[in-house]
């Protein structure tokens, strides 16, 4: 009996990129696309995981980075010396919207994941690799875009509610089960901050989401202003943030990058830690925001990444 894995070995899925009058083909282990707003356009590339020789990978990354409609997804048929490519779908990429990650398929195969930045933020999509999308969505709702503190014991109820009401949509996409036996999931978020607030509030009012300890609510009426509230609950807030957020650079445990000490004007320790955190982040993405008080320096990204 021929299985899907056998067919994928015999007719491997592939990604084609057209560069001027040449075509490059790489093996494809995952592909996530989004339907275009214009039905006459090709599908938008959201994520792909590919492997191949170095020149092919570099050419593919360059083409995707520059924005192209010369992409195609299909399968390869073994020929005398290579694979003959059969096209299934045309694809397009958006210029400057992708982040690349080297990954290992197995001990003998290296690959690269090319991911649209919309899958890496907390905006429209959720990538779930651990088989627990409810937890991934809980984390996003607790982030800066929504600011909702969702208790761990609420996550499954909230996930099912969002799914049933159509506020999250599970995307269908290609994934090589031989490489990812447990698979992974991609969800599209289809709710606003206000809608998320209303959903959680409604579930609490109907006692579907319950708190570990009951209260009368009188403590809230005693709050006079935000400043006094923060002073009173500062320790609790810091403890909760420490549980939820892992900093890029922890001054208590992480060292400052040594080359910052080579500047003609040495950095203060606080500045050194901030600069180190920025450098670490710029190794993962092209830009970032720095918010600080007076004496907060602005650093050139090329110098930080040197």
Please give a structural write-up.
This protein is of the alpha+beta class and 306 residues long. The N and C termini lie far apart (55 Å). A 5-stranded mixed β-barrel has the order 1-2-3-5-4. It has a 3-stranded antiparallel beta sheet with strand order 8-11-9, with helices on one face. It folds into 3 domains: 116 residues, no CATH class; 100 residues, no CATH class; 47 residues, no CATH class.
Keyword list:
3-stranded antiparallel beta sheet, 25% strand, globular, 10 helices, 30% helix, 3 domains, disordered C terminus, alpha+beta, 306 residues, 5-stranded mixed beta barrel
Summarize the structure.
The chain has helices spanning 4-10, 54-66, 133-141, 155-164, 193-205, 218-221, 226-232, 234-244, 269-282, 301-304; strands at residues 13-19, 22-34, 43-51, 71-78, 83-92, 98-106, 109-116, 125-128, 168-170, 174-175, 185-189. It is an alpha+beta fold. It folds into 3 domains: 4-119, no CATH class; 125-224, no CATH class; 258-304, no CATH class.
* Helix content range: 25-40%
Low-pLDDT windows of residues: 299-306
Order of helices and strands: HEEEHEEEEEHHEEEHHHHHH
Compute the number of helices. 10
Q: Order of strands across the widest beta sheet?
A: 1-2-3-5-4
Instruction: Give the helix/strand class.
Output: alpha+beta
Radius of gyration: 24 Å
Question: What is the overall pLDDT average?
Answer: 84
Distance between the termini: 55 Å
**What percent of residues are in strands?**
25-35%
Q: Could you give the topology of this structure?
A:
Blueprint lengths: L3 H7 L2 E7 L2 E13 L8 E9 L2 H13 L4 E8 L4 E10 L5 E9 L2 E8 L8 E4 L4 H9 L13 H10 L3 E3 L3 E2 L9 E5 L3 H13 L12 H4 L4 H7 L1 H11 L24 H14 L18 H4 L2
């Amino acid at each position: 009996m021929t299985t899907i894995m056998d067919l994928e070995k015999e007719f491997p899925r592939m990604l084609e990129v057209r560069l001027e009058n040449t075509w490059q083909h790489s093996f494809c282990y995952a592909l996530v696309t989004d339907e275009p707003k214009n039905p006459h356009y090709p599908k938008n590339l959201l994520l792909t995981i590919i492997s191949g020789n170095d020149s092919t990978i570099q050419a593919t990354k360059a083409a995707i980075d520059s924005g192209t409609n010369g992409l195609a997804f299909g399968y390869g048929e073994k020929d005398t010396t290579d694979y003959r490519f059969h096209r299934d779908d045309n694809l397009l990429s958006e210029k400057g919207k992708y982040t690349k990650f080297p990954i290992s398929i197995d001990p003998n195969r290296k690959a690269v994941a090319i991911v649209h930045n919309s899958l890496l933020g907390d905006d429209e999509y959720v990538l779930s690799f651990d088989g627990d999308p409810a937890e991934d969505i809980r984390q996003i709702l607790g982030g800066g875009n929504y600011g909702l503190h969702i208790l761990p014991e609420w996550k499954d109820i909230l996930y099912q509610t969002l799914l049933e009401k159509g506020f999250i949509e599970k995307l269908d996409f290609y994934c090589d089960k031989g490489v990812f036996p447990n698979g992974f999931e991609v969800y599209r978020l289809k709710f606003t901050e206000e809608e998320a607030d209303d959903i959680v509030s409604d579930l609490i009012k109907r006692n579907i989401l319950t708190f570990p300890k009951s209260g009368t609510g009188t403590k809230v009426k005693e709050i006079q202003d935000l400043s006094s509230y923060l002073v009173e609950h500062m320790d609790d807030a810091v403890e909760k943030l420490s549980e939820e957020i892992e900093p890029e650079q922890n001054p208590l445990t992480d060292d400052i990058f040594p080359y910052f000490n080579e500047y003609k004007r040495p950095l203060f320790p606080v500045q050194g830690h901030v600069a180190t955190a920025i450098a670490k982040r710029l190794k993962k993405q092209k830009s970032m925001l720095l918010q600080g008080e007076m004496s907060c320096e602005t650093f050139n990204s090329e110098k930080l990444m040197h």
